[in-house]
What we know:
Elements: E1 3-9, H1 16-24, E2 32-38, H2 44-50, E3 57-62, H3 67-77, E4 82-85, E5 91-92, H4 96-106, E6 112-114, E7 118-121, E8 128-131, H5 140-146, E9 155-157, H6 174-182, E10 188-189, E11 195-198, H7 207-223, H8 229-249, H9 253-267, H10 274-281
Parallel strand pairs: 1-2, 1-4, 2-3, 6-10, 7-11
Antiparallel strand pairs: 4-9, 5-11, 6-9, 7-8
Helix pairs in contact: 5-8, 6-7, 7-8, 8-9
Amino acid sequence: MKLSVIIPAYNAAATLSEALHSVEQQHVQPFEVVVVNDGSTDDTEMVVQSFMDRLPLVCVHQENAGLGAARNAGMRAAKGAAWVFLDADDVLGSNKLAHARDHLMRFPKVQWFYTPIFEWSPGADGEGMRMRACPKIRSVEDFLAFNPIVPSTVVMRSNTAFTWEEDRDMQEDVGAYLALFTEGIMPMKIPHCTTKYRLDFGMTADAEGHVDKVMRAVKKSRELGHINDAQFALYEVRKAYELARTFKKRGDENGQKKWKREALRKAKAVRVPKNLFWRLRWLI
């Protein structure tokens, strides 16, 4: 099974070496590693060059076009049987490609997979890391209520009709997943936690701006008929909850209370799964 690891990189010199090193350390080696240099102006290219003799690297250069466009460019350049996505600020566990290969071979009818993540806050005083809840997705409502799929965990067969959103005013992943769900192409959860997801870096540093982009993408999905009004309202509750949770982690009590009130207000107008409702209620 030929696996193509796809890494979009924009001004990623500070973290890209860790990401590439994690690929180098895999128990199962990739067929290729496609790094898309998305118009970087820092030392990203120097980092890539330092790994040329250590990994089967394919370098794609383009003018800055955004994360979705960079991932799409990597998919077009890749020649493997499956894509394994990794963002330049995240890190793979050494068994990620082994689990990906095993599930691709064991479940030939499944088009794509995702895994849990460790939320990761690296720092000078040590690393804070915890596993994020990651339920199985059996329906669109499961995805909207629990939002478990992080792009750096996605493994997908390269014959899948899939495109990341390229409009930079929208988040690139959520609408693309919903388009697959509409076609009945549901993912399978690989139960092993194989990715360290860096918090408060890149897009996650601006939590409210990130949620604005996400909701614009979900509005587009509603307009396309991929979800209905009730499903859209459920996702509004989920994202408000996530903001409250983010501000709680940062010790921002005012932000936490603001978004918890907003989530509870929105929850009155829609049926919310019990697991999400009680998480929200107990988010003090």
